[in-house]
Amino acid sequence: MDGGRALRGWGRTSPSVAMVHSASDDAELVRLVTDAGPRGVLARGLGRSYGDAAQNGGGVVVDMTTRHRVLSVDNQTGLVEVEAGASLDQLMRELLPLGLFVPVSPGTRQVTVGGAVAADIHGKNHHVDGSFGRHVVSMDLLCADGTIRTLTPESELFWATVGGMGLTGLVLRVTLRMKKVQSAYCLVDTERCANLDDLLERMTEGDHRYTYSVAWIDCLARGSSLGRSVLTRGWSATLDQLPPTLRDHPLDFRPKQLAVAPPIFPSGLLNRATVAAFNEAWYRRAPRERHGEVQSIAAFFHPLDAVARWNRVYGPKGFLQYQFVVPFGTEDTLRRCIQMLSDAGQASFLAVLKRFGPPSDGHLSFPTPGWTLALDIPLGAPVLGGLLDRLDEEVMAAGGREYLAKDSRLPASAIARMYPRLDEWREVKKAADPHGVFESDLARRLGL
Amino acid sequence: MKDAIGNVQRVVVLGGTSETALATVAKLTAGRRGVQVTLAARPGERRTSAATALEARGLQVSEVDFEATERSSYERAISDAFESGGDVDIVIVAFGLLGDQKRAWQDVDAALELAQVNYAAAIGCGVLVADRLRKQGHGAIIAISSVAGERPRKSNFVYGSTKAGMDAFYTGLGDALEKDGIKVLVVRPGFVKSRMTHGLAAAPLSQTPEQVADVIVAGLRDGRRTVWAPPAMRWVMAVLRHLPRPVFTRLPL
Predict the structure, then answer these.
(1) B→A interface, C-beta within 8 Å
(2) pTM exceeding 0.90
(3) Could A14 and B138 be called an inter-chain contact, meaning their C-beta atoms sit closer than 8 Å?
């Protein structure tokens, strides 16, 4: 394809070449959609999906990041209307000074609002606040027939779009209900947990007292230490909870970028030995128990954002993220999965465990009540494919599922088992996009 | 679409009864069921048994008729193969004739048949496949060449000359397709113990089709552009290529 560009996901695997366009006015986007060729059109944001979700080989990819204006802000209600290409980073920088925080923040600020809708992203507050779609009041969707529809949660297409991986149309504008906060800081409690049982018990007992909760698990720990972890939980800090030095500018949000990872890392740098050393240090560094520590939003939510393009650390072979959820009551499966990873010695630093609350109404939304584990794994080990296939089986047998925004390797046969509402979604998709204008590599791989 | 692990979803084999190609398909799809494979070859017992063997491994196999001496046949085969399912991840160009070397340089028909099958049809298919893959924006071609193309020797220089031509074509095609996200892997096996060489005395460093397949799968995984099977053959050929002619022609090759 002449003039095409190779696009990859954050894991830097499986590139494909597409025509990349951007357009500031709606009419141009309408033309791109109505003139779509046989390989279709797809919106792309900041490319933080790990696999092929934001790729459309041989087709058109619309770079939405040029459309990033904040269109309106209502301080009273917390409602803001933004263009879909605005990043959560931008929203934090512009709106935190007004006392408005994004309702859901994932582990990085470098995602667009459109992407957040498409993946129905979740954050450390899922157990109390649900996923991103729940905080969307309305959105403008450019549909396959070239019309722009304003969708609200009453419509089916709204919920096919929330978590719909961009396959129902181009999200142009989103009205969000922001969270009102008094400061750009969190009060954080940190605890070390000796093993998985200890961790699960503490989370089950105590998560409801916190707005934000997440645990880091050392997936290389073995035996009685299997699942040893550091649990951090907290709340948004109110003005009177801040130390005097921060009270003058409580809503200051100026996260610093410490470094940019250069493209020089070889594959294999993150191996069992280096990751084990890192994990050991991380665990030891954490306080056994500490309460009420004041942390900035950036430090608490987005530690990895301090290093731009950190995905390069995995080298040219890239990496993948494996994230699944299994229902409450299937803790044995969770344990077995961690055991399998530990036995295989598949190096993963920063494996993250979290408890999900009630599900979203999105047909293909990932979060369902249960335990979700996410881990980054470098590519290269020949045993990895088989290991992950076996983990899939465990997850499916327990009634769990994997997160499409992270996925880069599921077989098509798995998807109907993981997403029981897939047929419902397909019907809505078919009605809105009968000729399959909106396409992606992920959709083709999984036969969505 | 080839996934992050390297799992493929659809493979098309041109020359679908090639033992090296079939061994490669088996290794590429090991551990995953339901991968689609299209075998393009002459209809007959060989193609049927190849299909049966792959189906026994849990693959979904389809067969299309393919005749390398007829342009209309291979055009239709490629079009059918691409249009009968989703995106094709890998096309293996595996058809070829060894021929009777003595006849091949003394008989016009025999010489032209080798040229037609090993060279003309190979580049014809290459053009057609490249166009299809470019439209997908991803994919890979595995072109089975031969070390015989690296330096002509009197015992099989007609065959060698056709392989030299197809090898140069696919090597160049790989460069031309780089910006399109399409990878081309040129495979240069030495002597392979297979149906093609049945009855010939095995040369040093001879290989089984499975051994060649291992080299191919590793080369694909590592993003190589040219691989030799066995890998040591690369250095053997480097030496042979630079031997003075009087020495080279006296070698029992």
Answers:
(1) 1-7, 9, 31-34, 86-87, 134-138, 179-181
(2) yes
(3) yes
Q: Cα(A114)–Cα(A173) distance, rounded to whole angstroms?
A: 8
pLDDT computed for residue B79 by the predictor: 97
Regarding whether A191 and A176 lie in a shared domain, the answer is no
Residue A15 counted as domain residue: no
- 8 Å CB contact of B138 and A57: yes
Share of chain A above pLDDT 90, in %: 80
Distances (CA, A) of B114 to A198, A443, B74: 72, 43, 16
Judge if A149 and A208 occupy the same domain: no
Domain boundary assignment for chain B: 10-250
Residue A386, chain B, CB below 8 Å: the answer is yes
Topology annotation, domain B10-250: Rossmann fold (3.40.50)
Contacts of A412 in chain B (CB under 8 A): 9, 34
Where in the sequence is the domain holding A337, given as residue range(s)? 185-410
A145 and A255 part of one domain: no
- Residue A436's alpha-carbon distances to A29, A59, A227, in angstroms, are 17, 12, 44
Statement to judge: residues A137 and A210 lie in one domain: no
pLDDT of residue B155: 87
Residues present in chain A in total:
448
Q: What is the ipTM metric for this complex? A: 0.90
Whole-angstrom distance, CA of residue A246 vs CA of residue A252:
9
Q: Is the pLDDT of residue B223 over 80?
A: yes
Query: Do A4 and B180 count as a contact with CB atoms less than 8 A apart?
Result: yes
Tokens of B220: 């694909």
Instruction: Establish if A126 touches chain B: CB-CB under 8 angstroms.
Output: no
